[in-house]
Amino acid sequence: MAAGKGVWSIDIGHAAIKALRCTVHDDGFWLVADAFDYIEYPKLLTLPDTNPEQMIRDALKEFLSRNELKNDKVAISVPGQAGLARFFKAPPVEAKRIPDIVKYEAKQQIPFPLDEVVWDYQPMPGAHVEEGISLETEIGIFAMKRDQVFRSLQPFLDAGIDVDFVQLTPVALYNFVAHDLLTANPTKEEYDPANQPESYVILSMGTETTDLVITNGFRVWQRSLPIGGNHFTKQLTRDLKLTFAKAEHLKRHAREADDAKLIFQSMRPKFNELVTDIQRSIGFFQTLDRKAKISRIVPVGNAMKLPGLVSYLAKNLGYEAVEIDGFQKLSGSEVTSSAAFRDNIMSFATCYGMCLQGQRKSCLQTNLLPQEILVDRLIREKKPWAVAAVAALLLACTVNFFFHWKAWNTADPEKFAQAISAVKWVEQQSSSHKSTDDQYMTDAENLRAIGNYVVGNEENRRLWPELLRAVTASLPTYEGKPEELWKMPIEERPFLYIDSVESKYYPDVSFWYTVSLRERYRQTVDNSKRLDEAAEVGLTAEDLDEKGAAPVEEGAEPGAANPMTPAAAPDASMEEEITPAEGEEAMEMVDENGEIVDALAGPTESGWVIQLKGKHFHNSTKARQNSGPQYVRNTLIHQLESGSIMLDDGSGQMIEVSMKELGISHPVIVLDSVPRTVQVDNPDYDPATMGMNGEAGMMAPMGGVNPMGAAGEIVPPKIPVKVYEFTVQFCWQETPVSKRIENKKLEAEAAAEAAAAAAAAEEGF
After folding, report:
1. 16 in a domain, yes or no?
2. Residue 168: what are its φ and ψ, rounded to 5°?
3. CA-to-CA distance for 216 and 194, rounded, in angstroms?
4. Which of 46, 124, 225, 466 is paired with 25 by a 20 to 30 Å CA distance?
5. Does residue 565 fall inside a structural domain?
């Protein structure tokens, strides 16, 4: 048995439990193996007549009876197919921003909500930081569903074993190869992605699956192949008509069989199937990393001891095989020279990799142990101290009570009985008066609240819903049948996509309406007049485009870096130049009183500035004059400037209300960009036809082909479409129903007075 200060790595397989204990050598570099255990089950866990939970429980009980874990850390491995690994390259950013980028990327890469998984990440070797900027940083994200993690931990929890590290088997194998085999690799400062060192293919065959890991020490890629040792046994049971137990025995001792040739011929289809799966996986990896140079295969796992399998793989794959007959950087002759250890050395590669991680000697240090287990363990460790603290506090309270009781006991309570009684009576009277006063104050506050509610202006609740309804009504719609809409090309669909709606209150909205916004609003007014004149003769924006209307710029309009932050308020001299500006044509209109006013005059008094951020794909080359910013002006801006909606007048009757009556005015495009080409999802692309999803990582299914169209053409998952992104702002000065009704009455009275004055003037004439 070994002393403390070590790491036990435990690998629960389908055929046996493997365990290895390592400590760090005095030189701080080598690991020393000072204990191991190999406990084989009576039967394979995958057989239908077995009880896997009970067999694992019995094996762990036997392990604890033979080994001492006190003061040691424990690391366990979980099968590769139980988790997932994703790798991405982070952009050059400050190193302190890497966690934020990783969290965003994890939401995209992990196909489950993050609260349902246990995940961790780590930059891969080869990344470096210069002046606080992370460059060429490839980051690995490793995740496992929370219920699967606890299912893997349950045997250890039942056995009373505290686990410190949970790691995926492929990652443990990578740590083993990077530390023990890739000894001639360059340092991370010398690493050149364009001239990579040689890569090794690690083949870890288990009972049901084979983990394939490809790494050059700086990058790693993995996937799980659905073929294992049991598949060879089942092939023998079918071909030779044997029971599973006999076929398993015959497989392990194939060379001593009477007819060894017949056995190998029976297993040859599975040999070919395994080679095909490996070749397909390696081929897919090389499409992802064309600069990778694969030179060797590293077979691990007892299933690889099948006679002739390693040489068959090396011959058909065309790579040299590295047969594991010892670990180069693991000392401890008492373990490494043991016959049982050497007989099963190929199955201890995972345990070796876990020991490296437990002793902080591995490249990857990610840990999938749930945080709540660490918290529970910390609380359990602190409980004795907490009990001791409570006991000390209780003792102190007892001593303190004793001194107080002694002081109280020295006084004669009878001397103060009458005074105490009088004080209690006064106290009761005071409490009664306070209670009555509190009740009166509560009743008064309730009456005041009821009064405020009764006389309050309830109609203000409708203002924001009316505003949102006005914005929604200003978006373009399709009047035809839905099925016709979805047959249209994306760039011809009449859609505006609003990504966000923001608002900001101004005590004086003229502060927002600067000289630059005035010029943008001139374009809005010109465009609105153009559309109104076209509507009078029955033309639409598309008709104007076909008739060759004046071209509209597609460049980015000038805007501030933050559209919601206004420019500095103009001084008096600037205000004098605004109406009209130098070289600017004055735009005049007549108000309801017959007075000429400036159409470009900005809003005054208090109000809100509403900002809409969005985009559209309506950028067809067939309608260049109704695309980009012009399409926004022809639809959203025009409706906000001169449109109307149906609203309740307060009595349940729907009436038409214009945008100006709602208080909406001066819509402008404050910020946009030149239409650019982006990749969007192809509506004709059917992922159900894919056999391989094209993503890197072990979760990709095998044997995929590109989806084909009806005519045999390749249908891409993404198609290029031009997108135009914009930011629109407009002023909104709250106008409730009562104020709108009052304004209509005033307008009607003014119109009546004007009509009467005109009639009187005509009679006088």
Report:
1. yes
2. -70, 140
3. 13
4. 124
5. no
Cα dihedral 172, 174, 180, 182, rounded to 10, equals -170
From 79, 61, 81, 77, select the one nearest 69 (Cα to Cα): 61
* Closest to 692 in 3D by CA, of 302, 91, 211, 287: 287
User: Is residue 550, in this structure, part of any structural domain at all?
Assistant: no
Q: What is the DSSP string of 307-360?
A: TTHHHHHHHHHTSEE---SS-TTEE-HHHHT-HHHHHTGGGSHHHHHHHHHHTT
344 plus 477 within the same structural domain: no
Residues written for the chain:
765
Q: How far is CA 266 from CA 233, 262, 369, in A?
A: 10, 6, 43
Domain boundary among 312, 343, 369: 369
> Which residue type, as a one-letter code, is found at position 160?
G
Q: What percent of the chain is predicted at pLDDT more than 90?
A: 19
Residue 563 resides in a domain: no
Number of H helices, E strands in the chain: 22, 26
Helices (H), 410-514: 417-455, 463-473, 482-487
Phi, psi for residue 332 in degrees, rounded to 5: 105, 75
Residue, of 548 and 2, whose pLDDT is higher: 548
Rounded alpha-carbon distances, angstroms, from residue 71 to 5, 330, 334, 393, 670: 6, 22, 22, 31, 66
The pLDDT score that the predictor gives to residue 452 is 67
Q: How far apart are CA 216 and CA 138, in angstroms?
A: 14
Assigned token pair, 183: 């000894």
Domain of 98, CATH number, reads 3.30.420.380
For residue 710, pLDDT over 70 is answered with no
Count Cβ atoms below 10 Å from residue 674 Cβ, excluding itself: 13
Q: Which residue has the higher pLDDT, 643 or 416?
A: 643
Strands (E), 512-599: 588-590, 596-598
Q: What are phi and psi of 226, to 5 degrees?
A: -80, 50
